[in-house]
Design goal:
Blueprint: E1 2-7, H1 21-38, H2 43-48, E2 51-62, E3 71-82, E4 85-94, E5 99-111, H3 124-128, E6 150-151, E7 155-156, H4 170-178, E8 187-194, E9 203-211, E10 214-220, E11 226-234
Antiparallel strand pairs: 1-3, 2-5, 2-8, 3-4, 4-5, 6-9, 7-9, 8-11, 9-10, 10-11
Length: 235
């Protein structure tokens, strides 16, 4: 288990003074990065071994969005590694130790030279420390795209969408999808399925559909190949 403490900043909140989904995702991403760096398995190690972790899927369940100035603890725990796959939980707690949000993620380890999956190196699991799986309601990884939706205006990948790995950051895909949510919609669960990387200048074609309180956004290329599918459940 790895944790760090923080305080909700003004820059991380929405118009109601609540932590945004984008900021929550960034906290979780930062937590896994801090964990990797602190155990010697961070960016330098990965570059030396021509490896990179690529996120394959998110499931985030929000109990409550913390307020501006609130003290929080962010945590993460890998609970399984096999082949080229890594499974990792995340959570955010308030000052009383109550869960604000829980998350499950699946990661793929790729060889940067070939672009293909690479086997998890010997000792990596021990370095991270494999722990117990977090108690939460786990949703299927596969997201069903409803029929009867509508195509939306194209999105061109800009420089601010790109992260240190030179492709669109997973949180940026979520931000793009959230622009299609109805006004006043509060996300209680987010699921994201990432299928391919997007790069500077790529054109993304959004398809948006909703049913039973859910909104699903599929982001594809101009030929119909899927970059990411994001499902929101809320009120």
């Amino acid at each position: 288990m790895y944790t760090f403490d923080s305080r909700i900043r003004f820059s991380e909140t929405d118009s109601e003074g609540k932590l945004t989904m984008a900021s929550l995702i960034n906290y979780f991403q930062d937590c896994s990065t801090f964990h990797s760096e602190d155990v010697g398995l961070g960016i330098t190690y990965l570059q030396k071994n021509s490896l990179v972790w690529v996120l394959s899927s998110w499931q985030i369940v929000v109990e409550r969005y913390p307020d501006l100035g609130e003290n929080v603890t962010i945590g993460t725990q890998p609970y399984d590694m096999k082949g080229f796959l890594g499974y990792r939980n995340f959570w955010m707690m308030d000052a009383k130790g109550c869960y604000l949000a829980k998350a499950n993620t699946l990661w793929s380890l790729l060889n940067t030279g070939t672009g293909k999956p690479g086997s998890i190196p010997e000792g990596m699991a021990e370095g991270y420390g494999i722990g117990e799986k977090l108690e939460m309601d786990y949703a299927p990884r596969k997201i069903v795209i409803p029929q009867g939706g509508a195509n939306q205006d194209e999105i061109i990948v800009r420089k601010h969408h790109i992260d240190a790995n030179h492709h669109v950051n997973n949180q940026q895909f979520v931000d793009m999808a959230m622009t299609f949510l109805p006004d006043g919609y509060t996300v209680r669960q987010l699921r994201a399925e990432y299928k391919r990387q997007a790069f500077l200048g790529d054109v993304l074609m959004p398809y948006v559909a909703g049913e039973d309180g859910k909104v699903v956004v599929s982001l594809t290329d101009q030929s119909g190949g899927t970059y990411a599918v994001i499902e929101f459940q809320g009120d």
